[in-house]
């Protein structure tokens, strides 16, 4: 008898489907890469998804984020993601947190309760805090580095942070992690040099802010890379069922 995951079962077997159905995954950041990762994970029938993002969907998000369509503009990203997940599989347990991950809110999350943590946030301080907490909790974590100003998804690569090259974000991350005594971290980054130099504009508060262009298929590919790595790790290492 066919169900929504019949074709996946042909690939990973009944045991694989059961492993994924027990998996508890947290995704921090539901921008272009994070939202696509969530979508792909839902289509793998994972048991539980915890979603963390403080932003609402805006009109410019339509060009690069899977959650963004005209009917969702103004919705919180976590609620739009929850609705989409349950449209894919209503059996997935979804926890949403419309909050900014920082020192004051990090205590809301017991990272030991997750089988895997996906960092797709755009703020360096939040990324470093989450990675440090995940390492302390001994929970597998993968971090997505900057995908702005990129045009070639074939240049994406998953590797340890120590093996990255070209990417300015990786260089900064590497230095900051070293200060915290963290030498190893699985990351997704792009070996492509930025397609355009950063543009700058003055914000409402008068501060000059960097602006980067982005495009749908790079973020979409990045999200699938993240989900694929998480799923393969769960299937091969059996990280589910943690106490």
Question: Can you walk me through this structure?
Answer:
With 243 residues, this protein is α/β, with parallel strands linked by helices. It is built from six helices and nine strands. It has one domain (6-237): Rossmann fold, CATH 3.40.50.720. Helix 2 links the parallel strand 1 (24-28) and strand 2. The radius of gyration is 18 Å and the shape is globular. The model has no long low-confidence stretch (mean pLDDT 91).
Rounded mean pLDDT score:
91
Question: What's the number of domains?
Answer: 1
What is the string of helix and strand elements?
HEHEHEEHEEHEEEH
The number of distinct helices, counting runs of at least 4 residues, comes to: 6
CATH superfamily: NAD(P)-binding Rossmann-like Domain
**CA-atom Rg in angstroms:** 18 Å
- Main CATH class: Alpha Beta
Assign the structural class, choosing from mainly alpha, mainly beta, alpha/beta, alpha+beta, or little secondary structure: alpha/beta
Q: In whole angstroms, how far apart are the ends?
A: 33 Å
Strand order of the largest sheet: 3-2-1-4-5-7-6
List segments where confidence is low: pLDDT < 50 over at least 5 consecutive residues.
Answer: none
What CATH architecture do you see? 3-Layer(aba) Sandwich
Summarize the main sheet: 7 strands, mixed
Number of strands: 9
Strand content: 15-25%
Estimate percent helicity. Answer: 25-40%
């Amino acid at each position: 008898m066919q169900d929504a995951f019949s074709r996946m079962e042909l690939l990973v077997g009944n045991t694989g489907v059961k492993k994924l159905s027990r998996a508890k995954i947290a995704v921090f950041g539901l921008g272009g890469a994070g939202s696509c990762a969530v979508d792909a994970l839902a289509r793998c029938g994972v048991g539980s998804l915890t979603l963390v993002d403080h932003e609402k969907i805006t009109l410019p998000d339509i060009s690069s984020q899977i959650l963004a369509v005209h009917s969702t503009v103004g919705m919180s990203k976590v609620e739009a993601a929850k609705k989409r997940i349950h449209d894919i599989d209503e059996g997935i347990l979804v926890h949403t947190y419309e909050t900014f991950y920082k020192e004051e809110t990090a205590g809301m999350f017991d990272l030991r309760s997750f089988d895997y943590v996906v960092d797709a946030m755009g703020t360096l301080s939040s990324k470093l805090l989450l990675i440090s907490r995940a390492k302390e909790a001994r929970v597998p974590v993968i971090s997505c580095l900057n995908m702005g100003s990129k045009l070639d998804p074939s240049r994406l690569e998953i590797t340890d942070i120590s093996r990255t090259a070209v990417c300015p974000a990786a260089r900064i991350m590497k230095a900051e992690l070293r200060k915290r005594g963290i030498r190893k971290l699985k990351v997704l980054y792009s070996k492509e040099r930025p397609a355009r130099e950063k543009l700058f504009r003055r914000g409402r508060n008068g501060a000059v802010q960097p602006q980067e262009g982005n495009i749908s298929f790079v973020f979409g590919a990045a999200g699938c890379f993240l989900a694929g790595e998480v799923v393969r790790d769960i299937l091969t290492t059996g990280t589910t069922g943690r106490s």
